[in-house]
Design goal:
Blueprint: E1 2-6, E2 15-19, E3 29-39, H1 41-48, E4 64-72, E5 84-88, E6 97-101, E7 105-107, H2 114-119, H3 121-135, E8 142-145, H4 151-160, E9 167-171, H5 177-182, E10 187-189, H6 196-203, E11 209-214, H7 219-226, E12 228-236, H8 250-258, H9 265-271, E13 274-277, H10 287-302, E14 310-315, H11 319-327, E15 334-338
Parallel strand pairs: 8-9, 8-11, 9-10, 11-12, 12-13, 14-15
Antiparallel strand pairs: 1-2, 3-4, 3-6, 3-15, 4-5, 5-7
Amino acid sequence: MRAIWITKHGGPEVLEVREGPDPEPAAREVRVRSRACGLNFADVMARQGLYPDAPRPPCVVGYEGAGIIDAVGTAVTLRKVGDRVLFLSRFGGHADTVCVDERQAFPMPETMGFEEGAALPVNYLTAYHMLFAVRRIRPGDRVLIHMAAGGVGTAVLQLCRTVERVSTIGTASAPKHDYVRSQGCDHVVDYRSVDYVAEVRRLTGGRGVDVVLDALGGPDWKKGYSLLAPAGLLVAFGLANVNVGGKRHLLRAAGQLLRSPLYSCRRLMDDNRGVAGVNLGHLWGHIDVVEGEAAAVLAFYRAGRIKPHVGATFPFSRAAEAYAQLEYGRNLGKVLLIPD
């Protein structure tokens, strides 16, 4: 097998493709020969040493992919050799051969290609969980999504279109506005040239929004909370503000954490607002939740109501370039790694 290893914490130069023996599936695991693997911001932070869940280097990260099952464990009953699947992995996903629990491998629709399959699990499950499990969006809701041109942003915009009269406001740099609009965003705000807080208030007539989906963190969580209408909800699902493209910056990370707001139950009660958090990786112990949400997302795909957008693909040998797409905010939709 070939895998992308993080040899130590640092910049893109610490990534290295290594070969090793094929893994053997445990009793309830399937082994997948991956055709495409998803890259996420958590992987970038893991490489920089800023993701506390990640294994210590040298290690292989990666949460998702798609391919064909070529071996099954002795107790597997749900899947079989030859099945085309997309999968979730608790790290180790950036490899051309991956073993996962059979319940974390989901049959792909016949019309879905491997690249679409690899682009779906993390982004769409995160978006679905925020919108339909944590918030339970309703017709007429107003949703603010930051980093609207990214993988999760794309998924959020598409899923919001499945509920009547939901209006969306997305933040993105000016060159990405056409793409964000093409995914169904009603209002796009250039956060680099406009005060997005003032602009959201203007767009909503001062009422604010019902949902803020924020992967920025730090002081932006405070700004998002201030934009909530009565009964509104801030959902935190990342801390992208700690990133400085291409390198590890511990002082910046510490500064962002220190500037993160603290909320008391008394304040939430008095404000009639809520705050929630989402980390898909921490739902692995609740596989029944993940299975149900994956089924719902795949049903949306089969119905033609969502479609993953693959913005860029890179072979394993060019993994550093793939990481740069996310680190420097160049991506539109999903970035994938392809075994070579």
